[in-house]
Design brief:
By secondary structure, the protein is mostly beta strands. It has 1 helix and 20 strands.
Length: about 350
């Protein structure tokens, strides 16, 4: 009888081979997972981080011109040192380029200090830069001025040689202006000291134009308003936003209302941005950037580091802003990460 020529394999050897095979399979799975994880990490979208640029800056006005994001903030130091404006530009929300001293008091002869809270807008081939100066009180020189340039980064030239608004009307200090385009009309919301006015600008921004009823100033102050008005339009609704609380305190925050008209009435909906006990306080004086033809909205704001009591220690940050199915703004959570890269 023939014997099988294949050697008999012992049970112990078979178990060793089986164990080795299982180990080799598990190792392969682990290795594949590590490779996949590494690949995902390498493709991870970079984040802006908060603050988005260094140094103390507040009251940021964010706007999109063409394929570039722009932020125009207040230089946040003592009033006597607030005598110029810088601005910042980015193609992707991540890397920001500083454009230094785009306008200062050597150009604006009537401004001496406290140059605050820019609002910017393009009209035709010109860029207009609205600002407050001098922390003006009744009878003093100062108020809301306008500058103009051929480029968003300036240099800007004083358009009027004097303030556009230099008096206290309806109790509103002439500061914190925001220019809002609605069709072919340009309105400006402004005001500190707990009062907000709306005015209409003429075609070349050199003067105020009366409303249809002949009035120049209309008060539109919502409940809780302190300062820092902002307006945008979405789905034919007017979203009016403002800052509440004291600007030097931890309770500074952002609230909003929704109306069918740029004149209101503006009934407060709720607060959507406020202090975070583990991250920062004093979150307010914001603006909103909207990427056209998308639902991508970004809120640009300033906040104060935890346990920092210096009034002017404010830094500029950015977060995504989203809406629920009924069109209400969802609460915005402050982050250290900021937002993902987004090329226009």
């Amino acid at each position: 009888m023939k014997r099988n020529c294949i050697p008999m394999i012992s049970g112990r050897l078979l178990r060793c081979i089986a164990i080795f095979s299982i180990f080799n399979f598990q190792f392969s799975i682990l290795l594949a997972g590590l490779v996949l994880y590494s690949s995902c990490q390498s493709r991870e979208v970079p984040m802006s981080g908060n603050p988005v640029f260094e140094d103390w800056y507040a009251d940021p006005e964010g706007i999109i011109y063409g394929d570039t994001y722009w932020i125009y903030p207040t230089y946040s130091y003592d009033y006597e040192k607030q005598v110029f404006f810088d601005c910042f530009s980015s193609k992707d929300l991540i890397t920001w380029t500083k454009h230094a001293s785009i306008i200062d008091t050597s150009e604006v002869k009537w401004a001496k200090k406290a140059m605050w809270a820019p609002s910017v807008i393009q009209k035709g081939d010109k860029y207009y830069f609205f600002f407050g100066a001098n922390d003006v009180h009744q009878g003093e020189t100062g108020g809301i001025g306008i500058a103009v340039s051929d480029r968003p980064e300036g240099p800007y030239k004083d358009l009027l040689g004097k303030p556009l608004i230099d008096t206290i009307v309806n109790g509103a200090q002439p500061i914190d202006q925001f220019v809002f385009r609605d069709g072919d009309r340009h309105y400006m919301y402004y005001g500190g000291w707990g009062h907000c006015n709306i005015v209409r600008l003429n075609d070349d921004f050199t003067a105020l134009q009366p409303f249809d009823d002949g009035e120049i100033f209309k008060e539109v102050t919502p409940k809780g308003y302190t300062e820092g008005p902002f307006m945008f339009k979405r789905n034919d609704k007017y979203y009016f936003m403002w800052s509440e609380g004291g600007w030097t305190g931890p309770d500074y925050s952002v609230a909003y209302s929704i109306s069918d008209s740029p004149f209101g009435p503006f009934e407060r909906v709720e607060r959507i941005l406020q202090q975070d006990s583990i991250l920062a306080t004093g979150a307010g004086h914001h603006s909103v950037m909207h990427i056209p033809d998308t639902e991508d909205y970004y809120i640009v704001y300033h906040r104060r580091p935890l346990n920092d009591r210096m009034a002017n220690h404010r830094m500029t940050c950015i977060e995504k802003m989203t809406f629920d199915k009924n069109g209400f703004i969802k609460p915005v959570k402050m982050t250290s990460e900021g937002v993902k890269s987004r090329i226009l």
